[in-house]
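Priority: medium. Attachment 1 of 2:
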């Protein structure tokens, strides 16, 4: 039986030896050097009493030391929670509440402390003694390996609980299990530009893929594109639809030398056929379009050879179902249900929500789409009332309810609108309270303080009344269309 995750990561680094696996802040770290960092971090965490089933929160950016700390916590079988920047204080406190300890490098934002629990500076972990012995992986298959959090627009982030068994079953570290599209992408990850935080599921997953493909992770700080791609001689990186649009516009206006670029993995929101064609025209055949969810990991991926707008042939179990739950034939739209090797076991301590989304081994995506005659996947809509900002999903309902608490607002409804900077943004339609004039700045401040900046409306339209559907529900399509 294969060793539990992260045994495969230790094997990769051991095999890499003196080969560079990380470039950070002008310095190169070899496989052996990164493995030594993991040993030191694991020893320090063990001395803090961390073991199987304990919660460890990580407020970290992207660096060799941060990567070592995350893998070290997994070596000890801990439940790892990555805390991303941009959360409100209440949201961050919620994520930290069950942690045995918190590891921070200062890049994860302020407020790392949790009453009664130690806060461990990353530098202290990495200054521990190195015994030179490969650490024993203590992870147990059924234990929760990590909590992957959603946006938090419902008030506090939901946590998708992924077991060690699921992480071990993932295809990422196993080249013989790579689907064709992933194999094509992996061949282009020689110098994979990474940025942001390891709390990002995408950054961590494709960083591991790059290591498994024999590539080097190259860190960068904003501004990223195209400057960092050129400066770091990157062959590949991850990009949102909004940033891809900006990069294409920049290249049209003032082309940079991107001759070494071989892959941009678009993630987080749909890429329209028009945007895909424009990107190919300006950047060449480098765009890979991934589709997945926090609950499932990758579901499907389109290569530059796939038709613009499609998501390629899903390598996982996927059914398109009608409202009664019956599968529909190719070419017919329905809701997508999937099962993947590394999908979450459910939502952490939320049994009712788990039962709604996870059933009989399938995950309900709440996305609409169809398979064509060649088994390619096409997305056509959502069953959820959500806005996708910077590749994060935010629910409309909590924003509407919060806006309606303002004394100037009698009724509020929000919709997603295209935004060149963030992909989508929040547009609020409000019925003013009698004699009141709502102010966009006040409403933005209200929402940002409670739910985060990304949920704050960027546009405000007062309306006398909200149009209704024949069923008597607010007709958001008519609102967005101006009617």
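Attachment 2 of 2:
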């Amino acid at each position: 039986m294969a060793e539990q995750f992260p045994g495969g990561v230790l094997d990769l680094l051991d095999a890499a030896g003196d080969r560079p696996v990380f470039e950070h802040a002008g310095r190169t770290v070899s496989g052996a050097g990164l493995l030594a960092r993991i040993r030191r971090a694991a020893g320090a965490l063990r001395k803090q009493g961390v073991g199987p089933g304990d919660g460890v929160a990580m407020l970290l950016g992207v660096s060799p030391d941060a990567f070592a700390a995350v893998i070290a916590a997994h070596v000890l079988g801990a439940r790892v929670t990555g805390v991303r920047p941009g959360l409100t204080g209440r949201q961050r406190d919620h994520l930290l509440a069950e942690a045995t300890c918190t590891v921070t490098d200062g890049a994860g934002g302020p407020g790392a402390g949790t009453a009664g629990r130690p806060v461990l500076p990353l530098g202290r972990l990495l200054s521990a003694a190195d015994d030179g012995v490969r650490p024993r992986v203590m992870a147990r298959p059924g234990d929760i390996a990590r909590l992957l959090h959603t946006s938090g627009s419902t008030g506090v982030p939901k946590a998708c609980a992924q077991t060690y068994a699921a992480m071990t079953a993932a295809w990422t570290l196993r080249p013989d299990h790579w689907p064709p599209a992933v194999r094509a992408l992996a061949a282009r990850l020689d110098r994979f530009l990474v940025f942001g935080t390891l709390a990002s599921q995408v950054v961590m997953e494709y960083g591991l893929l790059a290591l498994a493909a024999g590539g080097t992770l190259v860190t960068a700080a904003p501004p990223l594109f195209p400057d960092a791609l050129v400066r770091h001689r990157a062959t590949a990186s991850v990009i949102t639809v909004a940033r891809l649009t900006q990069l294409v516009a920049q290249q049209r206006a003032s082309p940079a030398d991107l001759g070494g670029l071989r892959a941009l993995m678009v993630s987080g929101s749909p890429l329209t056929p028009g945007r895909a064609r424009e990107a190919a025209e300006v950047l060449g055949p480098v765009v890979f379009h991934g589709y997945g969810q926090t609950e499932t990991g990758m579901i499907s991926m389109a290569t530059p050879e796939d038709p613009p707008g499609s998501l390629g042939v899903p390598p996982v179990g996927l059914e398109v179902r009608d409202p009664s739950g019956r599968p529909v034939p190719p070419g017919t739209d329905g809701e997508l249900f999937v099962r993947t090797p590394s999908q979450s076991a459910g939502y952490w301590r939320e049994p009712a929500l788990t039962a709604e989304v996870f059933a009989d081994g399938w995950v309900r995506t709440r996305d609409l789409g169809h398979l064509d005659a060649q088994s390619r996947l096409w997305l056509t809509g959502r069953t959820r009332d959500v806005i996708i900002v910077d590749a994060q999903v935010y629910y409309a309902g909590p924003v509407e309810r919060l806006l309606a608490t303002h004394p100037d607002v009698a009724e509020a409804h929000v919709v997603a609108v295209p935004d060149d900077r963030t992909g989508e943004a929040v547009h609020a339609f409000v019925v003013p309270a009698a004699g009141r004039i709502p102010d966009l700045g006040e409403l933005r401040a209200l929402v940002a303080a409670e739910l985060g900046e990304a949920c704050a409306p960027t546009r405000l339209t007062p309306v006398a009344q909200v149009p209704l559907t024949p069923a008597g529900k607010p007709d958001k399509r008519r609102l967005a269309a101006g009617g």
